[in-house]
Amino acid sequence: MERRIYYSFHDIPFGEYDYGYVKPSIRFTRIEIIHLLVSMLVLTFAFAFAFSYPFFKHIDFLIHIALPVSALSIVTAFVFHELAHKFVGQRYGYWSEYRMFPQGLLLALILGMATPFIFAAPGAVNIFGIPTREEGGKIAMAGPLTNIIVAIAFYIISLFYFSYLLRWVASINAYLALFNLIPLGPLDGRKVFYWDPKIWGAMLALAFITWMIVA
Fold it and tell me: Which residue from 54, 74, 199, 211 has the least number of CB within 10 angstroms?
């Protein structure tokens, strides 16, 4: 009898007694989708406000330039980053879901409206289980690696179809990869370093080179 994997506490049929596994698949729950959409919306406006600071004096720029640039940057840099953590976590069979941090989102929105600077702690993918050192390192590495791939892809496209928008998205992704590889606190770099310092060093070098090229 195969044991099942449930990807959300809401999906667990507590009345059943069949506790086997099935092959992991990518799953989203309603609450996770809501948290992702709210985070995307708030971050998009927060960064758009900061890009057009003071936004109330640059309404046209806010609507026609800052909002589209922010939206594409948030989708590629933030959403892809978090989904990479989620997908690798689920690939290893762990309950992996994104949860927003309301206080962090509110702070980002206030800073974006009041200053040209942003400090964003929108939320994170929560992993339920006890990953091994290697699994934890690979789950953590997936986010920055995705940002590096996106940065390189957008930069290459911009060489043939030059666009400020494409270069900006590439730069944001490269910066996010580099920042998250700092081996401190809750950042991805600490988990990657704990797993394998050599791989962490290679990732950090790759992120730095990418950032220097696309910035």
Answer: 54
pLDDT, tens digit, 9 for 90 and up, residues 7-23: 554 454 444 434 444 44
Whose structure tokens read 């789950």?
A: 139
Contact 148, 177 (CB under 8 A): yes
Give the pLDDT confidence score for residue 92 in this predicted structure: 92
Gap between the Cα atoms of 82 and 188, Å rounded: 11
DSSP state of 213: H
For the stretch 154-169, pLDDT in tens is 999 999 887 888 998 9
Of 78, 58, 77, 79, nearest to 67 by C-alpha is 58
10-63 tens-digit pLDDT: 454 444 434 444 445 678 899 999 999 999 999 999 999 998 988 888 899 999
Alpha carbon distance 104, 110 (integer Å): 10
Q: Is 135 a catalytic residue?
A: no
Task: Select from 50, 102, 96 the least CA-distant residue to 74.
Answer: 50
pLDDT at 138 over 90: yes
Collapsed DSSP state (helix, strand, coil) of residue 209: helix
The structure's pTM equals 0.83
Q: Which of 2, 16, 82, 97 is catalytic?
A: 82
CA 39, 44, 50, 56 torsion: positive or negative? negative
